[in-house]
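dumping these here so i dont lose them again. two proteins, back to back, each one seq then C-alpha cells. dont judge the mess
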Amino acid sequence: MKEGYYLIGVVSKITGISKDTLHFYNKIGLLVPDYIDEKNQYRYYSRWNLWQLDIITTCRKLSVPLDKVKQILDFHDNGRITQLLLDYRNEALRLSRYYQQVAEDILWYDEENKRVSAAIHSDKVQKKWLKGETVIAGIMTRDGTSYHANLQAAARDELRYADTIQRKYGYILDIDEMRAGNIYKCSEYLKIADSSYSHVSPENLHVMPSGEYAVCIVRIIRESADFGPLFSWMKENGYTTDAVYADELGLQLFDYIDDYYCEIKAHLKKI
C-alpha cells in the first residue's frame, strides 16, 4: 500500500467523521476513495480525499446542502466557489428571517393560550372608541352549518401566502337571537396580522366601522350566552346597536366545542 493512503477506519479516527457518513458520501458520489485494492476491494483514501473532507466539513458547518457541496468540490475555482457561497448566503438570510418568525409565532401562540386560560366571564361593560378594521369574512348565510366553510374558502389563498400564523377569528352575530340568549353566527371572520389581504376577493372583505362600542367578555356554552348585562347597559345609557362582533378570546389549534370565551363588541347608535 502506497504511503499517504488510509483505510476508512483510520480516516474516521483522524477526522472524527463516522464510517457510516463516509460510506454515505461514497454512495452519493460526494467523496469517492481514490484507490480500491483489486485483490480485496478495500477502499483507500488519499491525502487529496482528506482535503476534500476538510472542504465538506467546512461547508456543512455553514449548512450548505450536499448538492451545493458537490458543486464546490467540482469547481476547482475559488471565484466561482465564492459566488456560490454568496448566493447561498441570501438563502441563509431568508431562512433566518423565516425561523425568527417561527420563534415569534410560537411565543405569540403561548400568550394566546394564556389569554384563554385566564378568561373570566364578567358583567362589566365598557364603552370604547375602536378604529375601523378590515377582515376576511365568509358569505352571510342563514345556514348556520356553513359559516366556517365559507370563511375557509374566502381566506384560503391569503392564509397560504401569509408569513405568520398570528390571526384572530370572530363572528358577526344575529342581534335578535342575542336578545334570546342564543349565539347565531351570521358569518365568521378572520384577521391576519400585518396582512394586505391582496389574495382575497373584494366581496369577502368586511369593514368593521370605527366608532363607539360597548365591549364585554362573555362565556359561551353550547352556543348560548347571557347578553342581559350588555343590553341593560345599552338601554340605561340610551344606546342601541346595528352590528355586534364577537372576537374569540385567544387562539387554540383545535375547534372550540361547547365552552369558550369571546370579546363582544356592539357598535353603538344613539336612540
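---- next one ----
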Amino acid sequence: MLPWKRVLRPLTALLLAAAVAAVPAATAHASSAPTTGWNDYSCRPSAAHPRPVILVHGTLGNSVDNWLSLAPYLEDRGYCVFSLDYGQLDGVPLFYGLGPIDKSAEQLSAFVDKVLAATGAAKADLVGHSQGGMMPRYYLKFLGGAAKVNALVGLAPDNHGATLSGLTNLLPYFPGASDLIKATTPGLADQIPGSAFLAKLNAGGDTVPGVHYTVLATKYDEVATPWQSQYLSGSDVHNVLLQDLCPLDLSEHVAIGLFDRIAFHEVANALDPAHATGTTCASAFS
C-alpha cells in the first residue's frame, strides 16, 4: 500500500485538473465583462422582457468566458444582460468560483442589488452554469434573494454535489485530502457530496416559494454526476434532460453552458414561458 503522503498531492492535483477541464480557458480574455453589449448599466428592460438577466459563471470560470455565446444570444432577443465575477482567491487571477460558496452568494446578493438599482426593475432572473446554477439557491434561501428573483435557470447545476464521475469517492482513502482541498480551494470542498455546505443548502427542501426553477441537464455530464442529482424537487420546478428534446445533443458539462443553442433555447423558454416554443434539434440553428 502506498504511503498516503505520496499520493495525497497527486490526488488533489487530479481533482483540480478535472475541475479545470470542466470550464473554459480564461487566458484569452480580461476578467471583467464588457461595458458595451452585456453589463450595459444604461440598459432598461422592455415591456416584453421586464426583468434583467444575471448570468452566474461556474467554478474556475469568469464573467466573460462563460458567456461569450449565451449573453449575445439573450441580448439579440431583447434582454438586458449582466454578469459578475465571484469567489476569487487571493493571488489567483482569471479563475473564479473557488472561494467559500456562502461568501460567493453574498457577492451575488450585492450584484443583484446593483443591477436592480441601475435598471429600475423590481426583480431579476438568474441563469447559472454548474456552481453558478447551484450557488444562487443559497442566496434565495438564506440571504433574502427570493424577494428579488423571479426565476433561476441552472445549466448542469451541481445541486446535490459534484462527484467528478466518482473521483471524489476516493477522498476517504487518502487521509488529509479533504482537509487540504478545504484549506486551499474551499469552493471545491463545498461542492463535494456530503459537505456541510450542501447539507445546509438542501435541508428542509430544495426550493423556496415564489421562485420559478428550471434545471437543464445532459446525460453526458462528467462533473455533476450522476446527472440525475442535478434535478430539484419542489412545486415550481421544471427539470429537463436535453436528450429528451434532442437525442442527437452530445453536449457534456462544459458545452451545455458554453455553446449549446438547444440548451439556450430552453433558457429563453424559461425566461419567457408565456411565449415558449418547442425545443428540438432544429433549435440549434435558431
